[in-house]
Amino acid sequence: MRFTDFDNVISIYIEAPRKNCVESIMKKLQVSEPEAHELISKTDKYRADYYEYYTRGGYWTNLVNYDLTLNSARVGREKCVDVIEDYLKIRFDL
């Protein structure tokens, strides 16, 4: 069974340019730029493997697999939350 088989599930993909992700990781974890790149690469590999396993071969960055895709660098993280809340209201008629 896939998450798309459930009416009460939504899938959201939030992305930002690598530069923004590196800056965020450096600030949050107080690591160097090379360490931030390494952490991001390891996390992305884990996410890709996890997604591929549970979707039986799906690719986690294939945007057609998501109900909603956001670029947090363009709108900001807080506004992403607002958009997701609005989407939930629309999707589930709340």
UniProtKB/TrEMBL annotation:
Q: Name one Pfam family in it.
A: Cytidylate_kin2
Organism superkingdom: Bacteria
* InterPro entries, alphabetized: P-loop_NTPase
Q: Which Gene3D superfamilies match?
A: P-loop containing nucleotide triphosphate hydrolases
Q: What is this protein called?
A: Cytidylate kinase-like family protein
